[in-house]
Structures are given as C-alpha cells and as structure tokens.
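Help!! Second protein's tokens look totally different from the first
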Amino acid sequence: MEQVDKQEGLDASAVPFGDPWYGATADGRGEHAGDAAPGDGPGDAVPRQRVHSAAEIYLEVQRSPAFQEVRSRYRRFVFPAALAFLLWYLAYVVAATAAPGLMARPVAGAVNVAMVAGLGQFLTTFLLTWAYARHARLRRDRAALDLRWETQEMTRGAGRP
C-alpha cells in the first residue's frame, strides 16, 4: 500500500467556524496568542478601560432596546398562539365529555366527528410548529444573532485582568 503524505497547512480542526462562541472559553484558553486586547503591548498608547464582568454585560444587553424588541416579537407571537391552541384543545375535551352524541356522529363510514377533531389536533400542532419556526426565522433570528455577536464581542475582554 502506498502511504499518502499529509499536506502542510491547516487541518480540519484548525478551520474556524462562523460561530462567535466556537473556541471562546470563559478562561480564554480557546483564543489565539495574537488576539491581544489593545493596551496589552508595550508601545500601545490606548489607555485601558474598566473591564465589565460577564454578568454586567449580560444585564446591559438584557436592558437594551434591541433585546427588548426581540423579546416583544417573541411574546406577540407565542402568547396568542398558545392561548388559541389551549382554547382549541379545551373545546375538544369539553365537546368529548359534554356532547358525546355530537362527537359520535359519523362523518364518513367509520370516521366520526371525534376522530376528525382529534386528527385536527395533530394537524394544528404541526401547523403551529411550522408557523413558529417561520416567525422566528423571519422576525427574530437575525436580531437575536446580531445581539449574540455584540454580546460575544463585549464579553471577549471580560475575565481578563
């Protein structure tokens, strides 16, 4: 068998991903030596500013208008959708217990109203899941990712002396 030599350069584990959290640990072990903060070198004239703790940074982000907008968009979708689904489910349960004659009424052959309503529950679950994923993708994901990047950049210096 012929042996193939490995080419010089980056191996697969050294290729960075587009994820801002990849390789960044709380104690800074995942960062490269060349990523020193401004003011670390002897010739830097940039004064060192107070380094905020991670908790302070996260509280600041939580109070930001951008974060509040993401949360507001989430609540404006989830609360009405959850309420509508809960009412639909309770209507099914109440109808099954209070109106057994209605639920036993045949629709087609052996299929009755209760079976159609039960299948409607499953269909509603899948439709609601699709609608939630679509809403998140179109209305929240970009803003949440931007907040994540900003927070990661702000915490990059947190924990360093």
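Here's the second one for comparison:
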Amino acid sequence: MTEDVLAYKKDDFHSKGNDILILGIGNYLMGDEGVGVHFINKLDQSKFPENITFIDGGTGGFLLVPYLESHPIAILVDATMDGKEEGTISLLKPKFSNDFPLALSGHNFGLKDMVEILTMFDRMPQIYLYTITISKMDPMVVGLSPKVEAAIEKVTEEILNLVHNIREQKVITVE
C-alpha cells in the first residue's frame, strides 16, 4: 500500500512531454539579480529544437520542484556574486546542493533545498547551471547593467549549442 502512494509517476502536466527544461531564476525587482528572468523573457524560443519547456521561475523556490523532477535535463540561468568580473558566464554541473557556489544570491537557498529534495527522492535531473556574475543587487530596479545585459545574448548562444550537443548525444546524460 505504501509503495503505491509513494510510487513516482511521470508528470506530463509539468513537462508537457518535453525532455529538457530551460529555467531562468531571479528576482525581477532586484536589478541584475533578475538576469535569469530577463534571459527567459528575451529568449527567441523559435531558435531552439522541439521538446523543450521554457519557464520564468522568478523566485518560485519549492514551486519549481515538479518542473525540475519532470524533466531528465534541466538548464538553469541565474545570477551569482562570485567575485568575477561582472557579466562573466560560468557553467556548473551540480549533482548535490553542496556543488552549488556559495555566493549564489539569496533566493537560491530554495534552489539548494530543491536539489536536496530531488536527490532524496531520486528524481534529480541532469543539471547545467549557467551563472552570470553580478556585482550588486538593486532593490526596486527592473533594468540590467550593460555587462549583465550583454551576457544574455552570449549565454543564449551557449545554451543553444548545449541543447544541440545534447540532441546529437555529444553530451552524456545521467540515466
């Protein structure tokens, strides 16, 4: 009985039958900290192949768990304050919450918790985390600084190449 209640069932509602999730995270009202949201909103989805779910995750926290667990591959874009030059793009492939950089902005405490939950229930997707370095958070500012704004086009190109490599199976996925 307990096994039936806890048995995992594929969630087509959250995945729409797609195998890749592209998720922008950030607080739109905090200047550069909202770069992930700006990325998703400026993205030309027609340049991407089919079977991809695009989500503006904002500061959704735990509400994003069903989307992450319903896709075998998740590509995330978020801001980080890692001390690098503003606008620097980094790619991480975290498998556990401790693999995330310490300097991720405040809302990512929820992201790390989501990873713990997904790992605990053995529903962790293969994650590609693109971070864009920011130097500050500006409360009640919706625009981006020029270097962070310029990084959106570059990270879009990198993600498009990653998706094509995944589709051509040049990138090994976790089973």
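Reply: Different proteins will give different token patterns, so don't panic. The mean pLDDT is 87.
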